[in-house]
Design a protein that fits this description.
The complex is a heterodimer of chains A (122) and B (114). By secondary structure, chain A is an alpha/beta fold. Helix content of chain A is 39%, strand content 11%. Chain A contains 6 helices and 4 strands. Classes of the chains: A alpha/beta (122), B mainly alpha (114). The complex binds zinc ion (ZN).
């Protein structure tokens, strides 16, 4: 499922999620080089370090919530889960957004699907 | 009952439909920026993140200034060889150049009353 992809996991992410990534062919890497950055807590120390990094300020690093991988697992697919909804911004950004748009997808049980999935299912 | 099919299609943008093979932690920013239309979620995300980045940059500027202050103070008492070089560089003391961390522009940007 994750062959050829590299990821970094925050300490806040449960071991089960990391194991799932590896068991599906994903590789582990440092946060500087990984293609995907996963965290379960924006306020954890290692994740805040990313928000303060040059890469983040230059718009070259985004953190995704590790629930994204749980969604992939439950659907047995990576192409039906829109990764752009599982973005995990810094706490202050989250708070600002919650007052305007409500809860994040990774806080709810709601299932969003990518466009192609909607076409095939309707 | 179907959760997402009931949502109007025009409320979705590239950030909403791309999957993992099309976008990663590195390309997300570029994808969002190159997208002509943005849904409410991704527009709000982008604006809030831009504000966060600006405040990060301000913080960084003020950090380096405090750092040079400390260095200068220390170098007068210790590390003589280094203090000579430092003194040259710090001939102008940035003492009254403080950076405010308060995002003064924020109100105007959100409501943009004219
Ligand atoms: Zn969107």
């Amino acid at each position: 499922m994750f062959k050829g992809k590299t990821a970094w996991f925050s300490d806040s992410v449960g071991k089960g999620v990391t194991n799932f990534w590896v068991s599906e062919g994903g590789a582990l890497s440092s946060w500087k080089t990984a293609g995907y950055l996963f965290s379960a807590d924006a306020s954890s120390e290692d994740t805040e370090r990313i928000y303060e990094s040059e890469d983040y300020v230059k718009n070259k690093a985004r953190v995704f919530h590790s629930n994204f991988l749980s969604a992939c697992k439950s659907r047995q697919s990576v192409t039906s889960v829109p990764i752009g909804h599982y973005v995990l911004p810094p706490d202050s950004v989250q708070n600002e957004m919650r007052t305007l748009i409500g809860r994040f997808i990774w806080e709810t049980d709601e299932q969003v699907m990518c466009e192609d999935q909607i076409y095939t299912e309707v | 009952k179907p959760p997402s099919a009931s949502k109007p299609r025009d409320l979705r943008c590239a950030g909403c439909v791309k999957h993992m093979n099309e976008m990663d932690s590195r390309s997300f920013g570029t994808v969002l920026r190159s997208c002509r239309f943005q849904c409410d979620f991704h527009l709000v995300l982008r604006e809030a993140e831009d504000r966060f980045r600006r405040s990060q940059q301000l913080k960084r500027t003020s950090h380096t200034q405090t750092h040079t202050h400390d260095k200068h103070r220390k170098s007068t008492s210790e590390d003589t060889e280094r203090s000579q070089r430092e003194k040259h560089r710090l001939s102008h003391q940035p003492s009254d150049r403080c950076v405010s961390l308060t995002p003064l522009r924020r109100q105007r940007e959100i409501y943009s009353v004219r």
